[in-house]
UniProtKB/TrEMBL annotation:
UniProt keyword annotations, A-Z: Purine biosynthesis, Transferase
Protein's organism: Thalassobaculum litoreum DSM 18839
GO CC terms of this entry: cytosol
Domain Formyl transferase N-terminal residues, every copy: 4-182
Family matches, as InterPro entries: Formyl_transf_N, Formyl_transf_N_sf, GART
HAMAP family cross-referenced by the UniProt entry: PurN (MF_01930)
Role of this protein: Catalyzes the transfer of a formyl group from 10-formyltetrahydrofolate to 5-phospho-ribosyl-glycinamide (GAR), producing 5-phospho-ribosyl-N-formylglycinamide (FGAR) and tetrahydrofolate.
Protein's recorded name: Phosphoribosylglycinamide formyltransferase
Active-site residues, Swiss-Prot/TrEMBL: H111
EC number(s) reported in the record: 2.1.2.2
Pathway per the UniProt entry: Purine metabolism; IMP biosynthesis via de novo pathway; N(2)-formyl-N(1)-(5-phospho-D-ribosyl)glycinamide from N(1)-(5-phospho-D-ribosyl)glycinamide (10-formyl THF route): step 1/1
A GO molecular-function descriptor: phosphoribosylglycinamide formyltransferase activity
Residue numbers binding (6R)-10-formyltetrahydrofolate: R67, M92, R93, I94, L95, N109
Gene Ontology biological process: 'de novo' IMP biosynthetic process
Phylogenetic classification of the source organism: Bacteria, Pseudomonadati, Pseudomonadota, Alphaproteobacteria, Rhodospirillales
């Protein structure tokens, strides 16, 4: 089976991008990273992509008059590269409804909470402030509503009495690196079907 071509959107260090690159280095993995796009020219993830021989493009969101024109430029680049799936990996821009709908069922995100709890910014801090005993991360399909799409994978970590935001975030990140490649493999391998709000992978 031909491997699915994937575009990854980043804004920063790209540690989840690296996890996807590492997974895709196995010829048996059902996806290959075809393009990495960043809205920041100094994002370290661009260096990770270049080291792996992956094409990169930078689109400075400040250079566009509105969200729609910025998204249209990224969309054109992804489609020109033959991308069939888009993965968000620390991409710190809200995407327009048109962009999201154009990739419906083919765009993934990784979020550092057990969705639907603690959506939005600083979910690890939200978890600590709520006093939960278990936190974690979620791989989900992207919909126009923030952090709200069908869930493909989740992983849990205990919240320790000694945790602060940085410590909890670091342990969650380890699990992000483990489950994001699994979620992409499910989608790229055609193992996902949607029933209502549920992503069934069995």
């Amino acid at each position: 089976m031909a491997r699915k071509r994937v575009g990854v959107l980043i804004s920063g260090s790209g540690s989840n991008l690296q996890a996807l690159i590492d997974a895709a280095s196995d010829p048996a993995y059902p996806a290959e990273i075809a393009l990495v796009v960043s809205n920041k020219a100094d994002a370290f993830g661009l260096q990770r992509a270049a080291k792996a021989g992956i094409a990169t493009q930078v689109f400075d969101h400040k250079a566009y008059p509105d969200r729609e024109s910025f998204d249209a430029a990224m969309d054109a680049a992804l489609r020109a590269a033959g991308c069939e799936i888009v993965c968000l990996a620390g991409f710190m821009r809200i995407l327009s409804r048109g962009f999201v709908e154009g990739w419906a069922g083919r765009m993934l995100n990784i979020h550092p909470s057990l969705l639907p709890s603690f959506k939005g910014l600083h979910p690890q801090r939200q978890a600590l402030e709520a006093g939960v005993k278990v936190a974690g991360c979620t791989v989900h399909l992207v919909t126009p509503d923030l952090d709200d799409g069908p869930i493909l994978e989740q992983a849990t970590v205990p919240v320790l009495d000694s945790d602060d935001e940085a410590a909890l975030s670091a342990r969650i990140l380890e699990q992000e690196h483990r489950i994001y490649p699994k979620g992409l493999a499910l989608l790229a391998g055609g193992a996902v079907r949607i029933e209502g709000r549920r992503a069934l992978t069995g």
